[in-house]
Design goal:
The chain is an alpha/beta fold. It folds into two domains: 24-108, ACT domain (Alpha-Beta Plaits, 2-Layer Sandwich), CATH 3.30.70; 132-238, Pectate Lyase C-like, CATH 2.160.20.70. The chain contains four helices and 15 strands. A hairpin with a 2-residue loop joins strand 12 (203-206) and strand 13. This is Probable septum site-determining protein MinC.
């Protein structure tokens, strides 16, 4: 009997696709790793679930010349011990190349912050307009529910309970009390905003920049507000 010939499959076993994602950047302004970790622990205590398994890009550009690879390696160990996931460095130059090579991290040279100045007069810039219709939710959003408006705005005509989560590629509008989480611009739209009639949120975020409940000023709680991003900071301003 002749031996059976099995042809080798030529089907591709993988493909490579580019994706735009929102990444959290940990910018180092000091080589004092112990103080950095202590302050990071305080921040993580306020939002442990949000930060767990979070991919991090480290930006040591300001201190790269003084930062040794051994100190950076020690920081990476401590970050991983806290269930954070450092994946790359941001920046360029010989010092950054040295740090990346000696710690085994990649480099993201083209990762930038918001390229355009923000508008805070309540008017929309042309890039804020979206051809994708918004998603409208008529009922209250209960604890444990997650609602995502892909490609557009999310409009909630009622209240949002603690433990509920709203996500939108565009803006988020809540015409009731916002007590859960609201994350706008989740695909990196830094011009997205959050509007609500009564702010008592557990967390607010735009394009990966967030504030937890403890960071929201008492003067802004329970008020009609809009939330927008300027640089790396969230701002809360009254409506009207």
């Amino acid at each position: 009997m002749a031996p059976q010939i099995i042809s080798e499959s030529r089907a591709a076993t993988f493909d490579l696709k580019g994706r735009m994602v929102t990444l959290t950047v940990l910018r180092l302004s000091s080589t004092d790793i112990e103080t950095l970790l202590r302050q990071l622990d305080e921040r993580m205590a306020a939002a442990p679930d949000l930060l767990r398994a979070l991919p991090l890009v480290l930006d040591p550009q300001v201190v790269a010349a003084e930062l040794s690879a051994s100190r950076l390696a020690a920081l990476l160990v401590e970050l991983r011990r806290r269930a954070l996931v450092p994946i790359a460095l941001r920046g360029e130059g010989e010092d950054l190349e040295r740090l990346a090579t000696e710690t085994g991290l990649g480099i993201l040279r083209q990762l930038t912050d918001s390229p355009e100045p923000q508008r805070h007069d309540g008017s929309a810039s042309p890039s804020e307009a979206s051809s994708v219709p918004g998603r409208i939710v008529h009922q209250p959003v209960r604890s444990g529910q997650q609602i995502y408006a892909r490609g557009g705005d999310l409009i909630v005509l009622s209240s949002v309970s603690p433990g509920a989560e709203l996500l939108a590629d565009g803006n988020i509008h809540v015409y009731g009390a916002l007590r859960g989480r609201a994350l706008a611009g989740v695909q990196g739209n830094t011009e997205a905003r959050i509007f609500c009639q009564s702010l008592n949120a557990e967390l607010i975020a735009i394009a990966g920049h967030y504030q937890v409940s403890e960071q929201i000023g008492e003067a802004d709680r329970g008020r009609q507000v809009q939330i927008f991003l300027q640089g790396d900071s969230l701002y809360v301003a009254p409506l009207g």
